[in-house]
Each structure stands twice: as C-alpha cells, then as structure tokens.
Give the backbone structure.
Amino acid sequence: MEVTANIFKALSEIIRLRIMRLLIKAKKELCVCEIVDALDETQYNVSRHLNILKNVGLVSDRRAGTWILYSLSSKNVRFNQKLIETIESIPSDKEDDDMVRLRKRLKMRVKGRCVIGYKGKGG
Amino acid sequence: MEVTANIFKALSEIIRLRIMRLLIKAKKELCVCEIVDALDETQYNVSRHLNILKNVGLVSDRRAGTWILYSLSSKNVRFNQKLIETIESIPSDKEDDDMVRLRKRLKMRVKGRCVIGYKGKGG
DNA sequence: ATAGTATATGTAAAATAACGCATATATACA
DNA sequence: TGTATATATGCGTTATTTTACATATACTAT
C-alpha cells in the first residue's frame, strides 16, 4: 500500500509525468541529455526526477560509456502495466511539444546512439 | 497534464488510497462516519481527504439529511476507468482491516441507511 | 595523469502539504 | 427558538518536497 502510494507520488509532478510519457511514446531507451533537451528543463532537475522514478521502480537505467540510458522498467507487474495504460490514456497537450523536441533531438543520433550532451538550460 | 498530475497526487497519500479502495470494494455510497470508523481515523482528517479526492473528480458526494454520502465519481472518462482498474490491482494488505471494520459498521445500517455517527477517534 | 564530457548529489531556501485543535455550517427534531 | 448530530474548515505547527547553485563522480580520450 505504501509502495503504491509512493508510485502515485512519483507521478504527481508534471515533469515526472512528462518523462514517463516521453519514455512510453518513444518506445526506446533515452539518454539523460536527450530527455533534458526534449523537456527543456535543467540537467540537475531531470536527473533528480529520473532518480525518483527509478526509486519506485517505474524506470530503469543502464550505462553506456559516459551516457546513461533510461527506459521503462521491464518489471511487468500487473499493477505497473495498468499504470502505463493509464498514463497512455492521458489527454495530450503540452507533452506534444516534448515529443516534437525529442524527435528533433533523436535525429542527431549517430548510428542510433546519442553522441552529444544537452544543448538547453544549464545545470 | 496538470489535471492528471493532481489526480496522481490525490492518490499519493495512503489514507486517500484507502478511501478509494473502500469505495471501490464496497460498491456503494458510504457516509463520512462509516468511512471514519472503517479507517479508524479522525473525522476531520477523513473529511479533508475526501474533499481532496472530490476536488480532482475521483469521488462525488450527495447530501441525505445530516449525512453526506460519498461514492466513486460517475464521470466515466477513460482515464478514470483505467485508474480504477489500476487501484483494484494493488496487492492487499492493510486495507483488508478497513474492509473488516467497514462490514461490521455496515451491519449497523437500518433499512440500508446509516443512522449513527462515528464511534472512533475524535475530531 | 590531465582535460573534457555526461550525469549525479549535498545543501540551503522556498513552496506545499499534512495534522491537530477548535470551531463553524447545515440539518433534524423538540 | 434551542439542542443535538453530522460534516466541513480556518489556523498554526510540523513535515515533506522542489528548486537552484555549486560541486562531485564516472567515464573517455589524449
């Protein structure tokens, strides 16, 4: 029960919901700098919020050189699956901008991999 | 998006999750005093948390004399429906005690209606 | 080792939220 | 009108969360 409350708490901030939407829609691993540019938020904030999502088991990470790639957690608990469906059913508005920026950013990948840091806000 | 974040925030406190579980499992309107006794929490806390759930549209209320009856919101938006399913899939632990107390409490109804106030903690 | 890049985190300040108590509101009934 | 009951709320205190800045860590390449 407390675990569940913490999962909902993790989804109770817009920036974290935007991160989840991004990962759900992108359907692929994203590195931190790509998420930073897609959301147009500071690096340290994105990093912190990613950590919160990770702590409740919603996302997982993997290192690839200096880059760290985040993706939806593969723990396919029934609850998590329902939750993803719920998030998918959120009516769109602002996060569309995120996807536009993400797509632009993903074009900068070389051979499918991120090769540059974030361009936007400092941190 | 912000609306959704607020809905998740409403579900990020254990007491509010317990209220939601109670209403989902009971499958009927419950008056505030019945919820107070089922959760064994103070009247003012239950009242406050019910108001938070109501403000985000998860529950709705209806007056019946001095009693106010709460139920799941009938707004059957797809998102809300998914959310209910998600909450239903939460593994049980503590809220089972809530249901035991609720059932005991519901037996005190007369002709299917609550006729007494709460017995438990003050407020 | 050194420099450069990507990501994470300690800390303090600001903003939010929860709790307890007392009290207010609304209704019922005499 | 006055009392009793059910529910809601204003306010102060405490606890939690978010943010911003600076800096630390981890890795790569020279």
Notes: The first helix of chain A runs from residue 2 to 10.
